[in-house]
Amino acid sequence: MTHTIAVLGGNGFIGSRIVEMFHLGGLAAVRPVVRSMGSLARLSRFDLDWRMADARDQKALGKALAGCETAVHAISGEPSTIRDSVTPVYRAAQEAGVRRLVYLSSASVHGQAPLPGTDDDSPLSRRQPIAYNNAKAWAERRLMDLRARGAVEIVILRPGIVTGPRSVWQTRFASELLAGTACWFNDGRGICNSLYVDNLVHAIQLALTVPGIDGKAFLLGDAETVTWADLYGPVAHALGVDPLQLPNVDHVPPRRGTREVAGEFASSTTGRAIASLIPKRIRRGIHAVIAPAAPIDSSPWAIPSTPAIPLPSATLEMSLLYRCAWKLPDTKARQLLGYRPVVSFAEGCRRTIGWLGFAGFPTHYGNNRSR
Q: How many of the other CB atoms lie within 10 Å of CB of 150?
């Protein structure tokens, strides 16, 4: 009898592709677990035993996971969501009798520009300049602590830049090209640790079934060594843009004011714990200080100003990614999981460009399709 796999975050880019490939391929009975009814729009074309549960609600998660042999934690979101979801998910899985939980972490636990020689077993730092990296590193450590006292097996996967149809990496770049704000650093020569989404789903299937990998963490990537120019060049050409004409920019971190620093602390785990001890009247006063200032309405007699044209600029994350000079190895995944990419980088690009045209971007594909 085919066992049931719960996919937490089954409505997201990766989660929905897990559901599609497992369901259409007959690999297992899939149970998407989502936060709201609206999240089921993409999955409603399938007759699935879906469930609804917030990632922080252990009781609701326990009911959603009941009867599932394995589960995939594919919940994405802000650092607070990453941190706050792992404990309820693991404990709910324990209560429901789940045998193994596969957690989708990220290669960014090693930083966007990892040092040469970095591999699966390199130590993780939770003092990186990007909060997402720290949250993922914290979540991995927390899961291992829970596993030490629990019965549910844990397998951690660390995908790199996940590409493919609906990937934010390629759709965002396409949108920036059309808006005239696209840019890169050093002509995109840095290493892009890419991973086509179907290759990731293949690795998830292996992580759910291969024995003897409890407590292991695996880096995953495409077979090819890919640069950012390799990834973004086809998107630019499909939109009629010469990628060699893109400006090269660097990132200049903005100055952080007191309001921003205080706001970040207030939203952190420590900040929320301290806030719970403060009377509501005082908390309201603090919130008034750190909340973003409301915009001041301009005078109806003022002369309208010309909107500023956004200039190309790179975020801190992209600035670091463009500097990457090391292809993260997937040797451990090949040896212990039997992982081999099932889709080539070139084929993945072809499929993604086709989807961009289908989604309405003015690509050559889209133009030919409309004739």
A: 15
- CA-based Rg of the chain, rounded to a whole angstrom? 22
Sign of CA dihedral 82, 86, 89, 92: negative
The answer to whether 228 and 234 are in contact (CB under 8 A) is: no
pTM: 0.83
State pLDDT tens for residues 33-62: 998 877 777 777 788 888 999 999 999 999
Report the C-alpha gap between 163 and 352 in whole angstroms: 8
Reported as a single tens digit per residue, the pLDDT across 88-134 is 999 999 999 999 999 999 999 999 999 999 999 999 998 999 999 99
Ordered domains of the chain (ranges, CATH): 4-164+192-221+326-369 (3.40.50.720), 258-290 (no CATH)
CA separation for the pair 363, 237 (Å, rounded) = 8
The three-point CA angle 62-16-98 to 5° equals: 25
